[in-house]
Amino acid sequence: MKKIILSIFSVILCASATYSRAENIGVPSECEDVMLQAFYWDSYKTQSGSDSKYGCTKWIQLLKDTAAINANFDLVWFPPSASSTGGVGYYHACLSNQKSSWGSRSDLEALIAALHKGNTKVLADIVINHRGNENNWCDFYSDNFGTYGTYQLTKKHMCRNDEGFTSSSSTCYNAPVDERGDFDTGTNDGGCRDLDHTSDYVQTWAKAYVRWMLNVMHYDGFRYDMTLGYHGRYLSMYNTAANPYLSVSELWESTSRQVQHLQETDFNTMIFDFPLKSVLNNAIGKYTNYGLLVNPSNSLRAKGYGKYAVTFIDNHDTFERNKAYGDNQYAGEGCDLTDPAIKKRVVEAYAYILMLPGVPCVFWPHWKRCQDEINALIAIRKEAGIHSESAIVDSKNNNVYEATIQGHRYAVILRMGPNRSTIAPAGYHVASEGGSVAAYTIFMADNPQGMEEVQSDGAQAKGNKFIRDGRLCIRKGEKIYDILGNEIK
Asked: What average pLDDT does the structure give for the chain?
């Protein structure tokens, strides 16, 4: 049976190579990383009511969680860290001013340094589609990027069809065409001034900014906001200039449009798999139909682009910002993750994305409320060496989903659904059981399957993490610690 599975894996790997490029920028090959989105909407505030259980995520608060973050995550996605005209930061005012609602620049630098000390990389939220203003619709703060230059954007750098030129309440209403930029290459953002990325000056400004974020602020990679707003060629241009470790694009669109975007970027980025999020909403949240999880036709994996997928359950927009914001099957506004029915859906969804290929992104509120279950799933993924390009064979039977996934070190079998068998196949042992919390069982192969050998205690490179007696453990030198940094005797 093992030989048959490995043969199938070989065929899949050869077939998927059609879309694989060794020189992709911002797309680590066979990436084993797990990402954490370390914020949610308005989480810079001291929360009250239904939000209080998730906690504040200002820089100084996150600093207290670095031990647990370092123990479990390879990447942390931060919110926009520049000053802005709005609290969360997506309408930035001055990019070189790194004082925001989340905290001071010195607090941010201390947090990044602490995460780096634990070998965790940090992603900046890059907002360059649009720009907030200084005093009126069409004036902007200057950006001083030190050795990378000082820049002053003006209305000449705004898209010609921006509402700043068409609204009668704007200070640059009906400005002459020669005082405007070119037409927008994407979708307009109605709340801010859209920038003209066809402009050489805007391109130079954007390249200076991303270089400065990597080399001065010491971020490691980027999450690009609202990339539907400009052509993908510009994202590729900026990544080429900066060469981030990892880049992920936010494009809330269909799989075909996402593939088009990847092609436009010359495959120099990863992308959030929004279509797969919708599949999870239906399969686990709305219909409880686990069969829908079998290689979903509207996922990046089914189209042969799985290595570019950042998979996720919820983010700051889909979670509890507003009931009008899309598919809130897991939570939604005012939801209580202590509700067993909701927790079941969340944990099952994480069992799916944490065992499958792609780079999985864990959402802060989910991690805070389901930390034990999610940490255990991450540890299994790490021990097996499941990565962004792992081969997978999946099927359904009697509303049971089953997948066999090949990691760098071990193969794993995931079964989901109340009718699943919990008996381990020959050559496998039970690695995790959802039990009364969620309907899944995970089996890990007893021995490496033609892959590299591992240390005898199962410890791996990232934080030397392994599972012992069902507990996530971290080896540092001769000592072993739990996820909170307490020494285990």
From this structure: 87
- Name which of 226, 67, 95 is nearest 152 in CA terms: 95
Nearest CA to 369 among 427, 407, 313, 412? 313
* Total residue length of the chain: 489
Task: Answer for the pair 410, 446: CB distance below 8 angstroms, yes or no.
Answer: no
Render pLDDT for 440-457 as a digit per residue (tens, 0 to 9): 999 999 998 633 333 333
Give yes or no for a contact between 254 and 275, defined as CB atoms under 8 angstroms apart.
yes
- The residue among 412, 434, 410 whose CA lies nearest residue 422 is 434
Read off the tokens for 69.
Answer: 């973050």
| Cβ atoms of residues 67 and 484 within 8 Å | yes
Separation CA 309–CA 359 (nearest Å): 6
Q: Which helix (H) or strand (E) holds 377?
A: helix 371-384
Burial of 228-243, coded b for 16+ CB within 10 Å and e otherwise, reads bbbbbebbbbbbebbe
Instruction: Please list the residues that pair with 361 across neighbouring strands.
Output: 35, 312
| Count of Cβ atoms closer than 10 Å to residue 485 Cβ | 13
- Rounded-to-5 percentages of helix, strand, coil across the chain: 30, 20, 50
Do 16 and 393 meet the contact criterion of CB atoms below 8 Å apart?
no
Q: Which two tokens stand for residue 261?
A: 């975007």
- Identity of the amino acid at 363: F
Strand 92-94 versus strand 83-84 pairing type:
antiparallel
Joined tokens for residue 15: 């077939």
Q: Cβ neighbours of residue 425 under 8 Å, at least 6 residues apart?
A: 1, 413, 443
pLDDT digits (tens, 9 = 90+) for 79-113: 999 998 778 999 999 999 999 999 999 999 999 99
Per the DSSP assignment, residues forming a β-bridge with 29 are none
Nearest alpha-carbon partner for 75 in 109, 125, 110: 125
Task: Band the pLDDT of 394: cuts 50, 70, 90.
Answer: very high
**Residue 452: how many other CB atoms lie within 10 Å:** 8
